[in-house]
């Protein structure tokens, strides 16, 4: 198997019927950029900028953020890197930043991520300036976590654009262009896609948080880990509606939660029309091998039927389909 994954490293992530998929990696540290070379992934689809904050004893200043972002962009070369702005607060509390979140009863639904960044805008401004400077002369791609309503996206984007103007006034070299994306991980946002999609360059679905909110089941509670299945018709129907809406508007969409890194789950995602994934580096080989062994249009037809009239056990149905089709 290892040899098989090695063999797919240099090959395109293309299905049997010729659909090209994009397979990127999730990362968070400068060292992670090496995984691009090792795995042959198409880029970094999720760079979790809060990692630097979580491993540091004091608040990383603009200079040290700049250094990290530059290093990552340089290591990625021509491949795209999507930086996600800070996702701290909640369960990722920082000892040197008072968020009062230790007292929150539901930290994952608390004052975290973009909510915190918009309220503590000095923090976000420093990050925006570091990202803008790091990407001078190249494309900067940023996305915002935990957006619940479109105005939060608008406010975050406006803050970035103000920092671009600030940099321009100082005659600094700017990014060639900036692409802005939204993470869809709060279910409410799915109801507002008609408003949001015309304003974003891409959408990224975070299935870790999204499924915990859809099922109202804490993603960190081991007693619930086996209770609900990612391969449930409810999740897949939900995701399919989002993917169909983004496809209709011509907006690229990528799935960046852990779900996409598991072969059977990824197969189901291809079956509902997904074509972009950002996954843990160790999963790139298995997922590329899966993509290359599947007939996407046959699978989509089968999934349509299953989602209209769900079988008793969708996981089993998918497993059997995979076996029958040599996936
Ligand atoms: C997610 O929620 O699915 C996601 C990709 O972000 P994180 O796991 O960092 O919350
Ligand atoms: Mg998340």
From TrEMBL:
<comment type="similarity">
    <text>Belongs to the PEP-utilizing enzyme family.</text>
</comment>
<protein>
    <recommendedName>
        <fullName>phosphoenolpyruvate--protein phosphotransferase</fullName>
    </recommendedName>
</protein>
């Amino acid at each position: 198997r290892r040899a098989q994954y090695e063999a797919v490293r240099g090959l395109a992530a293309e299905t049997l019927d010729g659909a090209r998929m994009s397979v990127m990696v999730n990362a968070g540290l400068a060292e992670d950029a090496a995984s691009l070379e090792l795995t042959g992934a198409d880029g970094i689809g999720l760079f979790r900028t809060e990692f630097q904050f979580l491993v540091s004893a004091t608040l990383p200043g603009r200079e040290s953020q700049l250094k990290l972002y530059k290093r990552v962009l340089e290591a990625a070369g021509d491949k795209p890197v999507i930086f996600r702005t800070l996702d701290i607060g909640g369960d990722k509390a920082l000892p040197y930043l008072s968020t009062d979140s230790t007292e929150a009863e539901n930290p994952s639904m608390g004052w975290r991520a973009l909510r915190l960044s918009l309220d503590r805008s000095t923090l976000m401004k420093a990050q925006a300036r570091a990202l803008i400077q790091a990407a001078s002369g190249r494309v900067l791609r940023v996305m915002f976590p935990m957006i619940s309503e479109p105005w939060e996206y608008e406010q975050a984007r406006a803050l970035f654009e103000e920092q671009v103007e600030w940099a321009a006034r100082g005659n600094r070299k700017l990014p060639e262009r900036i692409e802005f994306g939204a993470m869809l991980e709060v279910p409410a946002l799915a109801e507002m896609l008609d408003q949001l999609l015309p304003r974003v360059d891409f959408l990224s679905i975070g299935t870790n948080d999204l499924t915990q909110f859809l099922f109202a089941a804490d993603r960190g509670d081991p007693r619930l880990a086996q209770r609900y299945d990612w391969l449930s018709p409810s999740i897949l129907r939900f995701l399919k509606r989002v993917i169909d809406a983004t496809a209709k508007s011509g907006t690229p969409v990528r799935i960046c939660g852990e779900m996409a890194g598991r072969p059977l789950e990824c197969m189901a995602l291809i079956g509902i029309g997904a074509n972009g994934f950002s996954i843990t580096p160790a999963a790139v080989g298995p997922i590329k091998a899966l993509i290359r062994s599947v007939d996407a249009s046959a699978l989509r037809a089968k999934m349509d039927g299953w989602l209209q009239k769900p079988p008793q056990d969708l996981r089993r149905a998918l497993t059997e389909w995979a076996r029958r089709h040599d996936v």
